[in-house]
Amino acid sequence: MSQPDTPHRAAGRSDAPQGIANLSDIINHVIDVAKGDFVSVRDVIRSIGNASFAPMLLLPAVAVATPLSGIPFFSSIMGIVIFLVSIQMLLNRRHLWLPAWLLRRTVKGHIVRDAFAYLRPSARWIDARMNRRIQILVHRPFVFIPQLLCTVSGAMMPLMEFVPFSSSVLGVGVALLALGMVTRDGIVVLIGLLPYALIGWLITNTAA
């Protein structure tokens, strides 16, 4: 991955903007913007426009859950994005800020297109089953739980860089939590908690 220029600020709140209502919307935006030889983090974020924080969080999480996580330092960079987005959600900021050096990072366009196109059938299947259920879990104060888990997951991803594809597990967890927040589906948030419960159980039993 190579390097950018000025910081980017995108308006966003915790609910999804018009045009970004589900996982398929995110994937289609990324595929459209990755038609060139290279695509930068800034390009992808700009393709979403004045998106809210939850779609911004879902995007890198989905990317980490794809084979792109095998690219050196890709998981670390996406982990930093996840950390910065989720911690700003926790702080209830009105605008998202990302550093310029991060926004300049690029990946070959065809690699991004192939990785996200592979997810299209699964995304359609998932989106068809989304609904606004147990919405109390995607509003304060309960929404602090998935936001905090996403913050911790993003911070851990750079530490897992040297274990190939291990960050994909955390990426799946963050993607589920973010998807639940985008679609306002508390059931998806609960499902997103399961990988963390499993990790906690494994740690507890290993230490015992």
What's this model, at a glance?
Helices cover 58% and strands 7% of the residues. The chain has 10 helices and 4 strands; from the N terminus they run E-H-E-H-H-H-E-H-E-H-H-H-H-H. The chain crosses the membrane at residues 71-91, 137-156, 162-179, 186-204.
What does this structure look like?
This is Exopolysaccharide biosynthesis protein. It comes from Yoonia algicola. It holds the Pfam family ExoD. Keywords: Membrane, Transmembrane, Transmembrane helix. The protein is 58% helix and 7% strand. The protein is mostly helical and 208 residues long. It has one domain (8-207). The protein has a two-stranded antiparallel ribbon. A two-stranded antiparallel ribbon has the order 2-4. Helix 1 (23-33) packs antiparallel against helix 6, helix 3 runs antiparallel to helix 9 (167-183) and helix 9 packs antiparallel against helix 10 (186-207). The longest helix is centred in the C-terminal third of the chain and has 22 residues, at 186-207. The model is unreliable at 2-18 (pLDDT under 50).
- The average pLDDT score comes to 79
Structural class: mainly alpha
| Distance from first to last alpha carbon | 41 Å
Approximate shape = globular
Query: What is the H/E order?
Result: EHEHHHEHEHHHHH
Low-confidence stretches: 2-18
* Overall tally of domains: 1
Strand order of the largest sheet: 1-3
Helix percentage range: 55-70%
- Percent range for β-strand residues: 5-15%
Pfam family, one: ExoD
Transmembrane segments: 71-91, 137-156, 162-179, 186-204
Protein name: Exopolysaccharide biosynthesis protein
Keywords: Membrane, Transmembrane, Transmembrane helix
